[in-house]
Amino acid sequence: MTFVATVRWAARQLLDSALPPRCAGCGAITSEVGLFCAACWPEVEFLGSVPDGCERCGGAVGPSGSSAVCPDGSSPIGRLRAAVAYGDIARSLAIRLKYGRKTAVAATMASYMRRPLAELTPGALLVPVPLHRGRLWSRGFNQAALIAAALGKAGGHASEPMLLRRVRGTPKLKGMSPRERRKTVKGAFELRRPFSVQGKDIILVDDVMTTGSTAEECARLLKREGARSVELIAWARVVR
Ligand SMILES: [Zn+2]
Ligand SMILES: [Zn+2]
Q1: pLDDT tens string 76-127
Q2: Entry pTM
Q3: Among candidates 21, 28, 57, which has minimal Cα distance to 43?
């Protein structure tokens, strides 16, 4: 975050705390900060872990012995969890986090991400998946970093918002084959400080996980740089 953006963000946070809490899904006034209102709550599909489900993603295991999101074991991401399935309200929050009441939205996301986060490595370092610099500057902040900060505060994890850096932009990965996606994101990130992740457990933080290719490229880099484990927590995951 730039200095100006940080000051603006802090001012916004003060302002937000003086106003009645609102539902991050629809804007209705609610009794508690960070929770959905009674109308939005049933519209959200929470992705709790299935008993005897896939160890990697927590999802149900099909007849083939693997879950829908983990068809093979080649991913550098050990385990991944998301709070909700990507749908209208999940998308609305991701958009509001970019353009709206950022701290309130990040608090709501974090309050529902805490439980899935608790299934991952305790005390691991939270590292947001970085945006391209151009995009970061035009918007003034990285939304994944806001989520990581909100999550870290609540769950006893340290967060390092600037650890990874995107060195080039990538086109939209939608519609590409897994191989093409992997090729497209290859080398798109670097570590700001070499040797800073050796022996560490890392949890990548993202707002919406679609193909997972971007986070996987970050994980590959972190592993190459000596991270002991890399996992992923996202607000929402595209399920179907
Ligand atoms: Zn609502
Ligand atoms: Zn799985």
Answers
A1: 999 999 999 999 999 988 888 877 667 788 889 999 999 999 999 999 999 9
A2: 0.86
A3: 28
Contact (CB, 8 A) for 141 and 9: yes
- Describe the strand order of the beta sheet including 125-128 as a list of residue ranges: 80-85, 229-237, 201-209, 125-128
Q: What pairing do the DSSP bridges indicate for beta strands 164-166 and 189-191? A: antiparallel
Which chain residues have CB less than 5 Å from ligand 1, an ion?
23, 25-26, 28, 37, 40
C-alpha 13, offset from chain centre: 21
**Better-predicted residue by pLDDT, 62 or 200:** 200
Q: Which helix (H) or strand (E) holds 199?
A: none
- What angle (nearest 5°) sits at the alpha carbon of residue 124, between those of residues 233 and 70? 40
CB-based contacts of 148-152 (< 8 A; 24+ apart in sequence): 148/205, 149/106, 150/103, 150/106, 150/107, 150/109, 150/110, 151/110, 151/113, 151/114, 151/117, 151/126, 151/205, 151/233, 152/126
- For the domain covering 3-237, report its CATH number: 3.40.50
Indicate the domain borders of the chain: 3-237
Q: Residue 73: nearest ligand to its CA? A: 2
Q: What's the gap in Å between 25 CA and the centre of ligand 2?
A: 28
CA of 79 to the centre of ligand 2 (A): 8
CA atoms within 13 A on the CB side of 202: 32
What is the Cα–Cα distance from 195 to 149, expressed in whole angstroms? 23
